[in-house]
Amino acid sequence: MPEPRERLVVTFFEHPCLAIRSADGSIYVAIRDLCDAVGLQLAAQLRRLKRDSELQTGVLQARVATAGGVQEQDFLLLEMVPWWLSSVSRARASVVVAERLKYLRLFALKTVYDAFAQAATLPQGPSRAIEDLADLGRLDDAMTMVAERQRQIEESQDKARSAWRTLDSRVRALEAQVGGTLSAQQSGYLYHLVHAWADARTQHEAALEVGEARRACFATLKARYRVAKYDQIPATMYADAVDYVRREYTRLTGATLDLPEQSSLDLG
Question: For 85-105, how does the pLDDT look when each residue is reduced to its tens digit (9 = 90+)?
Answer without folding.
Answer: 888 877 777 787 888 888 888
